[in-house]
Amino acid sequence: MIPMRAVMPSRTFPAITVLLMALHAAAFLYARWSGALLPRGLGDEAGGLPALAEAIVYDSALRLAADMAALWLFGENVEDRTGRLRFAAFYLLCGLAAVIGSLAADPASMIRAFGASGAVAGVIGAHLALFPQSRALLLVPVPPAWTTEVPALALVAFWAALHLALGVLPAMITHDTPFWDTGASGIIVAMAGGAIAVRAFTRRERMRPEWWHDRR
User: Fold this and answer.
1) Which of 37, 117, 155, 215 sits 20 to 30 Å CA-CA off 66?
2) CATH 1.20.1540.10 fits 2-201, yes or no
3) Average pLDDT for runs of 10 along the chain of length 216
4) Domain residue spans of the chain
């Protein structure tokens, strides 16, 4: 199934959400093309990227695809409620919170901090806090193609399970690392922080037509 959009559409075009998706994709392609070192932690003597880069760069194409799908689904409504500049600041703070949260568990760990995924986790937490009963529209690309609505919580559970399978469990098995030292702590901190802090970033409601609607 292919995520399409939240059932409750935003009233403004999600410019920052789209820009962040493009930035993440470009950073991933550049890192692969240039062979740049991917984030491994603030205290990594091997030359890991700084904390700001850890909130942008991905080390897995599958994780990138999963997070960008989640960002597209949940980011537009959060951006609509916060405004573009506030949303950009909120997203960056969530990413940095994930980096700090993951490194707080073990500053000397060589396991990469999941700052980029943490930023998306913060947006997911914010969306669930603002719209706990929300649903998402999915496209089932099986002829004849059809669409269906599912609870947002179901997609969040799938997203979490995917990250568990892609990052957390392999780190625990390969490196014999405790759960909290795999970077999962950063994602949890960012999601909880996003849910709590988003109210401080929301703006007063504005009555305006949806950006995709015909204005007559």
Assistant:
1) 37
2) yes
3) 57 90 89 61 43 67 90 92 93 86 66 72 94 80 73 90 79 70 79 93 62 43
4) 2-201
